[in-house]
Amino acid sequence: MNKSQGTKPAALTHSTWTIFSSPSTISFFRDTIVAKQSCRRSKKGTGIYPISTCSLWDFREAVGDNRLFCLLLTYSMTGCGWVMEMVWLILQGGDISKAKVSDVKSKYSRLEHDDLSFSRTTGLKPRIVISHLPFDLLQNILGRCKRVIFVQRDPRDCLLSMFHYYKQNPKLGQFKGSWSDYFDLYKERKLIYGNYCDWIKPWMETKIDKMQIFEFERLVRNRFGHIRNMTKFILDKHIDDKMMDICQWIHIDNMKGTSKKPDFSLDPILLDPEITDFLREGHYNQWEGLMNKHEMDFIVFHA
Questions:
Q1: How many Å apart are CA 165 and CA 73, to the nearest integer?
Q2: Which residues contact 57 (CB under 8 A, 6 or more apart)?
Q3: Per-domain residue ranges of the chain
Q4: What residue ranges are annotated as transmembrane (predicted)?
Q5: Which of 88, 107, 195, 233 sits 20 to 30 Å CA-CA off 122?
Q6: Tens of pLDDT, residues 202-222
Q7: Would you identify the CATH topology of the domain 18-154+200-255?
């Protein structure tokens, strides 16, 4: 039997690769995988995204009382967990003692998965909300956010990190294909959050009040300077006496110490490309020894 005859779409089996793109897959996902969640498709059709029980449009009202202070926007695998820790520490005035006793998942909410009460971070003020959604699904709520932190990354590094994520994630079939097979998915715009270059373009082309853009690679090279700039943007002041503490704390080994072992069995994170908060396969510039000239030219041409 084929998909048109009602069988489970191949995209949701442990096959060579997993693709969330076709209408039948969207229907199957909505009806049988997450009964309490719905899915919304980007207007460009480059990916589908899990949306919490309440709609994004209702979310505009939920943030009207300023419960949402800082929205952290990233594509998947662009250092979201790392930058979130920076933002959280800045909002805590650089108090490292709080970071040592706080589990990572209690520090933020995910717009795609949490209900609008943000119960996972009850009592956290100000709040941090993370999203990987594309511009066309978020543009109507941006005006309600006091601060928007946007993180971009070299698309080659991002693509490599996603490759390792696909290989490690049981919900994506623990991708068994080669790098070339995976790159074909990228070219065909069939990765779960769509093509990175497609995702980032509208953000770069639109002027958004109270949004500041940070480049992952520059943060890696100059943590002190860029965290200082981030602090000024978020707090409207500097806390220079805490800068070195923050820079030292955000070393990945420190953050791993407060992170719980990922649970791949949880349905709410089925489409969440950061099940492991601190996945560090595919490090900075490792793509140089992996991609051929044709692949690099393809990425540069579409960037």
A1: 19
A2: 140
A3: 18-154+200-255
A4: 68-91
A5: 233
A6: 999 988 888 999 999 899 889
A7: Rossmann fold (3.40.50)
